[in-house]
Amino acid sequence: MVAIGIVGCGGIAQQHLSCLKQIPEAKVAAFCDIDLGRAKAMASSVHGSRAYKDVSEMLGAEKLDAVYVCVPPFAHGFEKLVVERGLHIFVEKPIALSLEMAKEIEAAIARAGVVNSVGYMWRYLDTTELAIKTLERNGPIGLVLGQYHDPYWFPPGHWWISKSKGGGQVVEQSTHVFDLVRYVAGDVSRVYGELGTLLLNEVPGFDVEDVSVVSLRFKSGAVGVVTSTCASRKTFTGTKVSFLAKNVAAELGGHAGYAKIYWDDRVEEAKANVDPYLEEDRVFVEAVRTGDASGVKSPYSDALETLKVTIFANKSSEDRRPYQVD
Ligand SMILES: NC(=O)c1ccc[n+]([C@@H]2O[C@H](COP(=O)([O-])OP(=O)(O)OC[C@H]3O[C@@H](n4cnc5c(N)ncnc54)[C@H](O)[C@@H]3O)[C@@H](O)[C@H]2O)c1
Fold first, then answer.
1. Which of 242, 267, 269 is nearest to 127 (CA)?
2. Do both 19 and 112 map to the same domain?
């Protein structure tokens, strides 16, 4: 059995817990949250598990194999304590709000040699795999179009609406699109962003961008653009990425996952057959159990490259100039 501790007991922790309960080799033994009530509430659903308010206390008291880091973006940093104890680690995106912190954690992970994975679950969709194979056979990719268009739904005072706590939509939310774009089309060499706060100015405490356009140059030479808004109308939303290659176009979209493959004479459509959250957790637990991490599709060092793209998109908008990513 793989003994797991979860740090941060909010929405995404609940998602992982429900997946981990379906994996026979996994046992969630401990929950930790600065709001002890939340940790206790989750612990009450797992027989024999314990609740903690402090990470160090949990690490000292429990015999764990792995830790899930499910805290908001501003609360990262304690990962070093986890991996220095030789514990394997799963980290939710975005991995940090600064490249300095993410690089320090990456170095600690490398020194410890532990299994590591980041929650970019769209990489685990079978539809993603289908698009990659189709594009590889019919490439090269020339143009990438991504979008993350959401209506505004955050309750007053939520950490997400604060730039210093959540990092803003590009870093926190559209990061899924940037990561998928990198996974399919390869690494980004140059980025230029235009971010603005134009539609939600009246929301108290709201200081993140609500509209943005980020243009990308890939190392392959391909070009791309990702548009984002968290201020859309409910009838004008959607999350998708399209890739135009030499002989085919492919569109990946929706949180549940679909692929559309556009040929000259027909459009093929496929719906995902896997739950990407369950799949990423199953792969992580198996990697911890066997020591073979080859199935992990989003190691920490790779997620750092996605963080770079989103942070440089912000910097480029502030400085009004493109940024080289490497
Ligand atoms: N992969 C996905 O699809 C996905 C979906 C939702 C959220 N997320 C990510 O997961 C992270 C958490 O999001 P959420 O929606 O679960 O947030 P949330 O606000 O619902 O829950 C976060 C929890 O962490 C706790 N917390 C804060 N600081 C802590 C600390 N230092 N130690 C222990 N606990 C602490 C809070 O009290 C809260 O209970 C975010 O980075 C978010 O981007 C990923």
1. 269
2. yes
Q: What is the pLDDT of residues 121-158, one digit of tens each?
A: 999 999 999 999 999 999 999 999 999 999 999 999 99
Q: For 248-267, write each residue's pLDDT tens digit.
A: 999 999 888 999 999 999 99
The protein residue with its alpha carbon nearest to ligand 1, atom 25, reads: 8
Cβ < 6 A, ligand 1 pocket = 7-13, 32-35, 38, 70-73, 75, 92-93, 119, 121, 172
- Provide the domain limits for residue 8: 2-119+278-297
Choose one of 33, 35, 173 to mutate for the ligand 1 pocket test, by most ligand atoms within 8 angstroms of C-beta: 33
Distance CA 240, CA 242 (A): 7
Number of domains in the chain: 2
> What is the side-by-side order of every strand in the sheet holding 66-69?
50-52, 26-32, 2-7, 66-69, 88-91, 116-118
**69 Cα: distance to centroid of ligand 1 (angstroms):** 8
Q: What is the pLDDT of residue 256?
A: 83
The CA 10 to ligand 1 mean position distance, Å, reads: 5
What is the number of the ligand 1 atom nearest to the C-alpha of 73? Answer: 41
Residue 190 CA to residue 185 CA, distance in Å, equals: 14
Identify the CATH number of the domain in which residue 79 sits. 3.40.50.720
pLDDT confidence of 169, banded at 50, 70, 90?
very high
What is the whole-number distance in angstroms between the Cα of residue 322 and the centre of ligand 1?
31
Statement to judge: residues 135 and 233 lie in one domain: yes
In this structure, the answer to whether residues 318 and 180 fall within a common structural domain is yes
